[in-house]
Amino acid sequence: MKHTKHFLVVPMMALALALTACGDDQTRDMSTDLELNVARFDWMRYEGEDPVYKNVPKNEGQYFNPILTGFYPDPSITRAGDKFYIVTSTFTYFPGLPIFESTDLVNWTQIGNAIDRPGMLDFGGQNKNGLAISRGVFAPVIKEHAGIYYIANTCVDCRGNFILTAKNPAGPWSDPVWLPEIGGIDPSLFFDEDGKVYLMNNDAPPEAEPLYSGHRAIWMREIDPLTFQSISEPVVLINGGVRREEKPIWIEGPSIYKKGDWYYLSAAEGGTAEEHSQVVLRSKSVLGPYAAYEHNPIMTQRDMPRDRANPVTSIGHAAFVTDNSGQWWASLLGVRPYEGDFYNTGRETFLLPVTWKDGWPIILESGVEMPYVLDKPDLPPSMPSRMPMSGNFTIQEDFNADALDLYWLKIRSARTDWYRLNAGALELQARTDGLGDFGHPSFIGRRQQHTYASASTRLAFNPQKRGDEAGLSAFQNDNFYYALGITRNDAGERIVHVRKRAGRDDPAKGQLLATGPLKTDGHIVLKITAKGGAYDFSYKEEGRDWVMLYEDADGKTLSTRTAGGFVGTIFGMYVVTDQQ
User: Fold this and answer.
1) What's the total number of domains in the chain?
2) Most buried by CB count within 10 Å: which residue of 110, 135, 279, 577?
3) Is residue 186 part of a domain?
4) Which DSSP category does 68 fall into?
């Protein structure tokens, strides 16, 4: 198993962001009230050890899939010179749209977040009325053209489609340029050789009413290359799917690529669950008509045996890129269930080579199992990442830097300054927004990247009363989470307990599962251990043995299958108070 000590190095822009809430938003100086209801986290340790990576052999010339483990869905990829860039969805987590860089396509370093200023997008959360976790920013598409980087994206339930631009993929990225004329989701850009720019998107079909549930269409129009506004009438590239008589659902995630004299339209089909697939069509004209490949889909796992070992399912939403030698590759999403269709790590980013057969791109032949190990591209190796992104690893964040690293997430885009890094610790100020309140809780977390994983943290917290609580959470969304925290009981005694929320019918604070006494007022180490479909919750006081507070909790509570949505579990540090 690979062990890595994490030393933070972040851009000055990220440092400035950590010290202030950007833009015109009001901030609060924490220095005057840090001693009251402040939780101090000295470190957070994450360990991931999935058996598949220990049992599947890999040599130096090979790489592990997924290349971005954990909740990194809807990957879009582009190349600029000898460097590659990937962006993925983050929905209503903030900062959003992480940008990764690589020179070898298999080892990736996060270099920025395209949505890194609270004023860029509004996910709500004021007065506890925020967007659901799986709304917000869906399926970004990144392109580089003539030295400028573009991201086309949708903010679901928050103004619709928009485009961002940057001269450097690490940022800063522009404020959104909104596209009010373009409805639906999944906007994508294509820069043609004649200088024209086109935008594709998923939207309602041209019929007055959809012919069946999930009936959608892919549209395209020419846009102004400077303002991004429409300058032509939209045309339908594909209506329904490649075999409309079979009533295909959710044609989406379109992209166009040029190879020789042909324009290739690639799109996802079948929805994002186990029927997910990738299909391709082609035309001699960018505006079509597009003819579908006879042997579509060009990638799926829906025809594979359900009882196969270590399955990867739901693959789709592929994006193509070529390397410097002309070899084609595809980034795509997939999931790694521990049982049936249950997985807690969310949709992850995989990489596969693309082969060409009779003028058509093939990502994975029908009946071929999604591989965990493949030969590396013949490309210059990437610089080592600050944080490993694939295989098994252990990493500890000691909070010794001046700013949080780029991978840390908050729930929605808080506009108040409720945390700071101070003397080798992360300090969180208690506020009234809790984990189940659809607001801006004092919560900072990282992705669960392995089916078998643990997160632990050393915490100092002196709750003033019952209702004050700080700890560690396994968070799927506002309605589905576990929390292991320190608080006080009715007698005023400092205790540790486990809470579970398993749906909107549960109280926002969840149901109490277990309580344990604390014998000292000192630091406590909290630990959550994931074991596939079960989670353990334990704690340790200084100078004392570990105590198992609750064992084998139902991990399916945190699965996408149970909780819905499109995200994965986040291990997060939190603090909350019920005092106004």
Assistant:
1) 2
2) 279
3) yes
4) B
| C-alpha angle 487-491-492 in degrees, rounded to nearest 5 | 45
**Do residues 206 and 306 share a domain?**
yes
* Catalytic annotation, pick one of 50, 74, 348, 433: 74
**Residue-range definition of the domain harbouring residue 263:** 66-375
* Pick from 12, 18, 11, 5: nearest CA to 410: 18
The pLDDT assigned to 580 comes to: 58
Q: Are residues 177 and 254 in the same domain?
A: yes
Using DSSP's 3-state secondary structure scheme, residue 16 falls into: helix
251 occurs within a structural domain: yes
Q: In 10 A of CB 407, how many CB atoms?
A: 17
How many residues would you count in the chain? 580
Closest CA to 408 of 170, 574, 166, 176: 574
Cα separation, 411 vs 156, in Å, equals: 16
Q: What is the pLDDT of residues 114-131, one digit of tens each?
A: 999 999 999 998 778 899
Task: Name the phi and psi angles at 265, rounded to 5.
Answer: -105, 115
Classify residue 186 as left (phi > 0), alpha (psi -120 to 50) or beta: left
Active site residue 339: no
What are the respective helix, strand and coil percentages of the chain, to the nearest 5? 5, 45, 50
CA distances to 302, 319, 408 from 193, rounded to whole Å, are 37, 20, 39
End of a domain among 375, 408, 437?
375
Are residues 419 and 561 located together in one domain of the fold? yes
Let me know: does 75 contact 86? Beta carbons within 8 Å: yes
Residue 35 has pLDDT above 90, yes or no: no
Q: Which of residues 346, 375, 404 is at a domain's end?
A: 375
Virtual CA dihedral for 362, 368, 372, 374, nearest 10 degrees? -50
pLDDT averaged over every residue in the chain: 92
CATH number of the domain that residue 398 is part of: 2.60.120.200
The Cα–Cα gap between 106 and 69 comes to 12
Q: Is 89 in contact with 129 (CB distance < 8 Å)?
A: no
252 is catalytic: yes
- Residue located via tokens 């149970």: 562
Considering 50, 101, 186, 252, which one is annotated as catalytic?
Answer: 252
Categorise residue 405: left if φ over 0, alpha if ψ from -120 to 50, beta otherwise. Answer: beta
Give residue for tokens 């500890």. Answer: 396
- Whole-angstrom Cα Rg for the chain: 24
Q: Would residue 265 count as lying in a domain?
A: yes
Asked whether residue 463 is domain-assigned, the answer is yes
Q: Which two tokens stand for residue 249?
A: 């659902």
Indicate the helix (H) or strand (E) that contains 468.
none
The answer to whether residues 171 and 242 belong to one domain is yes
Does 15 share its domain with 74? no
Residues 357 and 397 in one domain: no
User: Are 291 and 338 in the same domain?
Assistant: yes
Tokens of 81: 């010179």
The structure tokens listed for 208 are 């007055």
How far does CA 306 lie from the centroid of its chain? 26
504, burial (CB in 10 Å: exposed 0-12, middle 13-18, buried 19+): exposed
pLDDT digits (tens, 9 = 90+) for 529-573: 999 999 999 999 999 999 999 999 999 999 999 999 999 999 999
